């Protein structure tokens, strides 16, 4: 294992002012997104949509990495440039989603386990050949009356650790993503307790699997109120709860934390990240790896029409720029008014 190379890649992804575009929606998820704008999900419509995101001029000032889906890593731009090369030429590191999705955990109603470990070593070797520098595996933890169970947390933590070890064996930086869902009426303190326990199990498992933490990144949820909780925490409360929770359970050897947006509005996700970075310096870089929060406005602007590509690119560029500012704690709502 070339530890130094892994650490360099991880650090490049969380370099100041930049974060990750998560554009690795699976077939089912991208269909759900396209349904909201009435566009059929076909190989060509998916290609055209990712093309507009990756071809956005200047976005590389704020985007250090792009996560692709298996289909996308094999596709090319309208000018026939393979997406991997298009990104690499802009200095954006290509990444790949390697899990095969979260499935019901047998025997544990309402809980999920992420699949995809079988054959992963061979798939990793191929993705490396295709140019992937980092990978992602998402575990899903649901909050409910009696859940998550300890068994579910441990099963998912072990799968994340086995994935991470295989990534590093292949010279690929693992993004370790345990997502505690924001669905539900629970309050922010319940989210904090579940997030802390989840992360503790994940770092126990990573330690046991001899994963080199300096060559990893963490992609977690923020500590926030449940979506249907009547009492919604402010950005400052979210920032305080998230940072203080993570200080207790995320080792300082981890170079960066790249948050998912998880269903927050685009502006809220930016505001929360900004509030964390405005608190001062932390043991790790605090960055973003947003899917919906970077893409939602662009998707709405696009509507599947080539005439709208420029408007969609402006919308994507604007969100990338706002989140770039949030990396330094210098974002403000005024930036939204100056939107193109
Ligand atoms: P969201 O930011 O839309 O949650 O997507 C991030 C992601 O990659 C989830 O796995």
**Could you say what the CATH topology is called?**
TIM Barrel
> Which architecture does the CATH hierarchy give at level 2?
Alpha-Beta Barrel
Mean model confidence by pLDDT:
98
Given helix and strand content, the structural type is alpha/beta
Overall strand count: 10
CATH class: Alpha Beta
User: What is the count of DSSP helices, taking H or I runs of 4+ residues?
Assistant: 12
Report the helical percentage. Answer: 40-55%
Supply Rg. 19 Å
Count up the domains.
1
Largest sheet: 8 strands, parallel
Q: What's the name of the CATH homologous superfamily?
A: Aldolase class I
* Bound ions, cofactors and other small molecules, one mention each: 1,3-dihydroxyacetonephosphate
Uncertain residue ranges: none
- The spatial strand order of the largest sheet comes to 8-7-6-3-2-1-10-9
Written as H for each helix and E for each strand, in order along the chain, the element string is HEHHEHEEEHEHEHEHEHEHHH
Shape: globular
Q: How far do the termini sit from each other?
A: 46 Å
**Approximate strand percentage:** 5-15%
Tell me what you see in this structure.
- The protein is α/β, with parallel strands linked by helices.
- The protein is built from 12 helices and 10 strands.
- It has a single domain, classed as TIM Barrel, CATH 3.20.20.
- It has an 8-stranded parallel beta sheet with strand order 8-7-6-3-2-1-10-9. A two-stranded antiparallel sheet has the order 4-5.
- α8 packs across α9 and α10 runs antiparallel to α11.
- It binds 1,3-dihydroxyacetonephosphate.
- The site of 1,3-dihydroxyacetonephosphate has 10 residues, from α10.
- 1,3-dihydroxyacetonephosphate (13P) binds next to α10.
């Amino acid at each position: 294992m070339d530890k130094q190379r892994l650490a360099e890649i991880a650090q490049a992804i969380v370099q100041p002012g930049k974060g990750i575009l998560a554009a690795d929606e699976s077939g089912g998820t991208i269909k759900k997104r396209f349904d909201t704008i009435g566009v059929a999900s076909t190989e060509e419509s998916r290609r055209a949509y990712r093309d507009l995101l990756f071809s956005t001029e200047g976005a590389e000032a704020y985007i250090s990495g792009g996560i692709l889906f298996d289909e996308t890593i094999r596709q090319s731009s309208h000018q026939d440039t393979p997406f991997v090369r298009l990104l690499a030429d802009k200095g954006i590191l290509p990444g790949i989603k390697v899990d095969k999705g979260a499935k019901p955990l047998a025997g544990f109603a309402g809980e999920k386990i992420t699949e995809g470990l079988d054959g992963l070593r061979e798939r990793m070797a191929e993705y490396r050949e295709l140019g992937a520098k980092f990978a992602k595996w998402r575990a899903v933890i649901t909050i409910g009356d009696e859940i998550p169970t300890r068994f579910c947390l441990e099963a998912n933590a072990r799968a994340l650790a086995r994935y991470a070890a295989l990534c590093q064996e292949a010279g690929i930086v693992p993004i370790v993503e345990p997502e505690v869902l924001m669905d539900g009426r629970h309050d922010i303190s319940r989210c904090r307790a579940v997030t802390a326990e989840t992360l503790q199990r994940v770092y126990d498992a990573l330690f046991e699997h001899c994963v080199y933490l300096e060559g990893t990144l963490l992609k977690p949820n923020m500590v926030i109120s449940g979506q249907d909780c009547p009492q919604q925490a402010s950005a400052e409360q979210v920032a305080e709860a998230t940072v203080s929770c993570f200080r207790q359970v995320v080792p300082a050897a981890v170079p960066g934390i790249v948050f998912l947006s998880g269903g927050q509005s685009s502006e809220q996700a930016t505001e929360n990240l900004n509030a964390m970075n405005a608190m001062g310096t932390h043991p790790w870089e605090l960055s973003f790896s947003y899917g919906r929060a970077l893409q939602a406005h662009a998707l709405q602007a696009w509507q599947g029409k080539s005439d709208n590509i420029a408007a969609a690119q402006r919308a994507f560029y604007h969100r990338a720029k706002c989140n770039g500012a949030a990396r330094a704690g210098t974002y403000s709502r005024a930036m939204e008014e100056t939107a193109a």
